[in-house]
User: Fold this.
Amino acid sequence: MRNIGNVLLNLIYPLRCPLCQRPLYAPGESYLCQLCSSKIKRLTLSTCWGCAKPFFEKESLCFECKGKKFYYDKVVVAAIYDDIIRRSIHLLKYARKTALAKPLGALLIEAISRPDCIDRIDLAIPVPLHNRQLRRRGFNQAEILARSCGQRLAIPVSTGNLIKTKSTLSQSDLKRDERFKNIEGAFLVKKPSDIKGKNILLIDDVLTTGATLNECARTLKRAGAEKIIAMAIARGL
Ligand SMILES: [Zn+2]
Ligand SMILES: [Zn+2]
Assistant:
C-alpha cells in the first residue's frame, strides 16, 4: 500500500524519460522509456583489444595500437557511441541525472556477461578523477557507474585506493599519442595489499584511445592485480 501515494503522485507528475521526456508508465520503465532503451545499439562485433575499435581480427591489435603495450587483459565496450548513448552520458556527467547510472550500469553488466568474458571478478574500481576535477564536478560519473555494477554483481567497489595524483591536460584536446604521454604516471595505488591477487573490473564512462584505462591498469598491475577487465559504456570518436 506504501506505493499508492507514489502511484498517484506519478499520475499527476509523472517521471519522465530524461532523453525524450515521455512519461514513464510501462513496467520496467523506471529510468529510460522503452523506446529510447530499444534504440541503444549493443557493440557485439569483435574489437581491437587495445582501443576497442571494431576490428575483424579477433584478439589482436589494430594498426594504431600495434607496438603499444596494453596492461588490461580484456577491454569491453558495451554500446555504439550514437546519439542515445552520447546524450545519456552527457546527462549523467553534466546534468547530474545520476538515475541514468542504473540503465547504463545494466548495459555494462550485459556486456561483460557475454560468453568468454571472465570467470571471476573480485572488485570494481572506477577510473578516478583528480581532486580538483572532482571538486569542480561534484561527483565522479565513473564511480556512479561502478556502484551500479557492483550492486548488480554483488562485489565491492573500491574508491580512494586507486587515486589520480597528477592533474593532467584534458585528453580530448590531445592527439592519440600525446594522450598516452599525458596520462603517464598520473595514478597511484595507496594500499597495494587490497589489490594484490584480485581480478578487477576497471570502469570508465567513455573510452577513446584506451590511454587512461591502460595507465590505470598499469598502475593496478604494478600493485599486484591479477586480471583486469577494462570497460566503458561506449567508445568515443
Ligand atoms: Zn525516451
Ligand atoms: Zn586499437
Remarks:
- The beta strands are 74-79, 123-126, 162-164, 187-189, 199-207, 227-235.
- The pocket of zinc ion (ligand 1) is lined by residues 17, 19-20, 22, 32-33, 35-36 (CB under 6 Å).
